[in-house]
Write a structure and sequence with these properties.
Length: about 450
């Protein structure tokens, strides 16, 4: 055995303890670490030849790279929609690497059964039916990709072909409709060979990002009975607006279409009795995307996809090889997702759900919503700042005086908070997304003070 490997194996317990202490120092310093930073250029090292062992690697990392890492795991990182990692989720993630299970099949481990249990818990949390089955994937983009891949196969079945076998060209014209689709939807259409240009935008309600259901009905009616895919939102990125899922689902009584719901982070509104009604009709969806490294606060990368059509999912993702075995009534995950080799990313979600339950995660969701609303009330007191939409859930979308790019830089330079730019209703804007389990009212005060300083 190579000498550094042999030395590290002999000293493994001490090395793990050193790594734990290093991680502990990082977590203890999150409150003071800059939330975002413009990292200095680090000259690249040559490819290591002899190596320096794990202790040496820890020291090298601490010297060269750790100072440039941001505090994105902390309570005042409000860019994108980024959760943190609850203590239980972090423990589950460490153990995921410790056990290093390939959760592709059930042939040599109970890892796949743990994933099925966790998917079942999430199905219940979102109020879905037993008909909905699911699997873990890497994020919202891949979750949307899987849902739309199954929808593509459904279109083919309606036209007497299998896209999985014959290719997307066998479909001919493809009709897709959405009001305010997330960029990952458009990216997925590109990867699926459907094409970005095939997506037809349906007008939204005045002053909203929610689709006008009447105009959607008109678009479907114009197809004269041809099948389509409808992509609905359960929480838009800019304002967390929700399409009327119940009204959209009711259109299926008149028109043949596949209903895909992008509930990347808005799906977690189901945990709150005050907001669960926003998801009325979700259980009627044919496929659903939910991102978990957002509001479930598990480490990157983790999402789940659901569908009511597992047979079509297997048709798309089945992997034919003698050593893998054919799909059964309870197919292995390698027949359900793009990856053959799959990290047991369900373990972090299993740990945080087991440790804190629905009650703990409900409190987290409602606390984040309250933080967003309180900050939304305070922001207009800053000269030149105005809200562009009501604070519906956990995102605050607002216009700022001057140039948005300058505002983003000024805010980031405070080291106290990070915000991402956007455009809403043709207005350049900033958005703040509250989704971290650590965020407190004290953090709200620090966030507001930093924004006030940067924008005045």
């Amino acid at each position: 055995m190579y000498r550094h490997l042999a030395d590290d194996l002999a000293a493994f317990p001490d090395l793990l303890e050193s790594t734990r202490r290093f991680a502990e120092q990082v977590l203890a310093g999150l409150d003071n670490r800059p939330v975002a930073r413009q990292a200095a250029v680090v000259p690249p090292d040559p490819l290591p030849r002899a190596g320096i062992g794990l202790h040496g690697a820890l020291d090298r990392f601490a010297d060269r790279w750790e100072p440039g890492f941001s505090g994105s795991a902390g309570p005042r990182y409000l860019g994108f929609v980024t959760g943190g990692a609850t203590p239980a989720a972090l423990a589950g993630d460490w153990l995921t690497s410790t056990f290093d299970q390939n959760a592709a099949s059930a042939g040599d481990s109970c890892a796949a059964d743990l994933e099925r249990e966790t998917v079942g818990w999430l199905r219940q949390a979102f109020g879905l039916t037993d008909e909905h089955t699911g699997a873990f994937v890497t994020g919202a983009t891949m979750s949307n990709f899987v849902g739309l891949a199954i929808a593509r196969e459904w279109l083919g079945r309606r036209r007497g072909v299998s896209v999985a076998q014959a290719g997307v060209q066998a479909l001919g014209d493809i009709h897709l409709f959405s009001g305010t689709p997330h960029s990952s939807i458009v990216k997925s259409l590109s990867m699926l060979g459907i094409g970005r240009d095939r997506l037809q935008l349906v007008p939204v309600q005045a002053g909203r990002e929610a689709v006008d259901v009447g105009r959607l009905a008109e678009a479907l009616d114009a197809l004269d009975g041809r099948s389509a895919i409808v992509i609905a939102n359960a929480g838009t990125v800019n304002t967390v607006d929700f399409d009327d899922l119940r009204a959209i689902a009711s259109l299926k009584e008149r028109y043949p279409f596949w209903l895909h719901v992008d509930a990347a982070f808005g799906g977690f509104a189901a945990l709150s009795a005050h907001h669960a009604g926003l998801l009325d009709g979700l259980a009627e969806a044919d496929s659903i995307c939910v991102d978990l490294h957002k509001w479930l606060n598990v480490p990157y990368d983790a999402a789940v996809q659901f569908t009511r059509h597992r047979d079509l999912q297997v048709a798309v993702f089945a992997n034919s090889a003698a050593y893998l075995g054919a799909p059964t009534d309870n197919p292995d995950y390698l027949h359900l997702t793009p990856e053959n080799s799959r990290r047991l990313r369900a373990l972090a979600a299993w740990f945080t759900l087991t440790a804190y339950g629905l009650d703990g995660h409900r409190e987290m969701v409602e606390r984040n919503i309250a933080s967003a609303r309180r900050l939304g009330e305070r922001l207009p007191t800053i000269p030149g700042v105005r809200l562009l939409a009501p604070v519906r859930l956990n995102v605050v979308c607002f216009a700022v005086p001057g140039n948005v790019a300058d505002a983003v830089r000024a805010i980031a330079e405070t080291g106290e908070v990070f915000a991402t730019p956007t455009v809403y209703d043709n207005t350049p804007a900033l958005r703040l997304a509250f989704s971290n389990w650590r965020t407190s009212e004290t953090d709200e005060d620090r966030i507001f003070a930093a924004l006030h300083k940067a924008l005045t």
